[in-house]
Amino acid sequence: MRTKGVEVPDGEGAQDNGVIGPAAAAVAIISVLVGGSILSAHDKKLSLSEAGPVAEAPAALSPAPPSPSPVFAQGPSPADLPGIASDQGAPANLSISPEMVVKFKNDARVKPIIDQFWKNPIAARKAFLELRSKRPDLSGLTLDRVTYSNELVLVPDASSKKPMGAKEMREIARKLTKSPDIEYAEVTMTAHPGGDK
Question: Class of the 94-193 domain?
Fold first, then answer.
């Protein structure tokens, strides 16, 4: 098919004829606008350079250094700024206790405990005690909370006869990581303002 001196193939390309014309016109208009703006900017540079030397601006005077404020001569100290943690003091009761984050390789073993925790934490803690009775490597630990990553956050059991600190928790974590069904067991220290949780 021949349209105004342009050869257009019949078949697949024939239905694109209505799109090609406006697209080509848009490309042409954009090219003219971009080319014109480049040329006009180039012409302005030429006219400025042909105008002759431009008088230089006077050298800028350096501003006088600001006079120091008597209160903040060295900058404000934290005590001068309200709300800085350093002026708030430590909480009266600050308890730092170890926690252990445990991730099982097969979430199916702990998924019921995790799902239950979001609905009924007390029932989930009882379910953990059942799991603990089958796993002696978890003795002395109790469920504190769970994470969205299906991890159990365990803390020393307060009802245990022997108190457990970070050193004992790290030893349990080391043993747990050797277990084939544990992905990881990591001990962290968490500060609990207001005393024991």
Answer: alpha beta
